[in-house]
Every structure is written in C-alpha cells, then in structure tokens.
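Technical note accompanying the year-one report. For the benefit of new consortium partners, we illustrate the data format agreed upon in the data management plan: each record pairs a sequence with a structure-token string. No post-processing was applied to the example shown here.
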Amino acid sequence: MTDPPLAELAGIFADVTGSEPPSPDTDLIEGGVLDSLAPAELLDVTRFRTLASLAELVAECRALGTSDAA
C-alpha cells in the first residue's frame, strides 16, 4: 500500500481492530468487516465497500477541506 490515504486508513484499521487490514480491494461489507452502517442512508454505501474506495472518499473530502469537520 503506497497511496498515502490508503496507507493511513490501513493503519487506522489495524490500530482500531488490532488485526491486519484487509487488502485494498476486499469488499468490507460482503466480508462482514463493516456491519453497522446506520448513517448509510445519507451516504453512498458503495464508498465504504473497500479500503481503496474509502481512500478515494477521504482524498475527495480533504480536497474540499471537509475531512476534519466535526
């Protein structure tokens, strides 16, 4: 994993779960890694299917300056 947002997400995954992150293209929903997506109604669930697609979402948010909005 050489893409900075992807590597960062993989690191966060490892820190939070205490296990190795899945490969960038592993389907996180089909694989049961993500099973609680209550706010998904507001978001396109396909953006959360893989670490690669999550990394793209993070990069887009950062470009908009919204990644740290709370």
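Partners are asked to follow this layout when depositing records. Residues 4-64 form one domain.
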